[in-house]
Amino acid sequence: MGAGTRVGKGGACSTPVQGLGATGDSQVVTPSGDDAQSSHQGEKQICSLGSVSTPKQSVLPKRLRKSVIQLDLANTKKAMIVPAFETLRYRLSFPKSKAELLSMLDMGTLFTFRYHVWTKGHAPTNFAKWRTATTPYRVEWEADFEPYVVVRRDCPEYDRRFVGFGWNKVAHIMELDAQEYEFTVLPNAYMVHMPHAPSFDITKFRSNKQYRICLKTLKEEFQQDMSRRYGFAALKYLTAENNS
């Protein structure tokens, strides 16, 4: 996600220490009649809202603040999933309600996030169930799951090895699962990803073989660390990765 690189001098893999960078342009909305709210924000804000740390509740849209209280987020290990969608259009009249979003989904104006590129990233969200859901529902971790989540401020941070493209959210969600966080999908919240130019890091990933080799090396390193920290419980992550 950031501007760091994994290719060091001599082609060796480096471990960047820069903070997460912002890429993309997304909107998140939590419809609630007259108080329906939306905000344009880059991926950095969504991720700090959703994963690295939860900001003060006053920053959150009203419906998310209600969910934080209703699900007792401050005192429980829960990760609230905000279902992600995307549009291929650079101009979009943002859906003001879930009903409007579903209509746009049916018309092909919106799609579930990265369905045509990387289905596994958000498949466990269970979009078919979300269409008719009226209450929060729990989903289980699966390999390569990388939803946008709202969590407690004291949750595990992103692993800084993955500061560039690839595996930043995957590794973080894996860590949350290892620490027994419960993944709960919110029925009336959603975000829409807007198209944007490819980031520097994804361009390097696509064009530079060494970058891809380094990512593979860092993934293996991370999995070994997981095994050391969580022992037998981490076996499922290795098994899932080998079967994916």
Automatic annotation (TrEMBL):
Keywords, sorted A to Z: Glycoprotein, Membrane, Signal-anchor, Transmembrane, Transmembrane helix
Pfam families: Glyco_transf_49
One cellular component (GO) term of this entry: Golgi apparatus
Main location: membrane
Annotated segments matching region Disordered: 1-46
Membrane topology: Single-pass type II membrane protein
GO MF entries: glucuronosyltransferase activity; xylosyltransferase activity
Polar residues biased stretches: 24-40
Coiled-coil stretches noted in the UniProt entry, renumbered to this chain: none
Protein name: LARGE xylosyl- and glucuronyltransferase 1-like
Species the sequence originates in: Castor canadensis
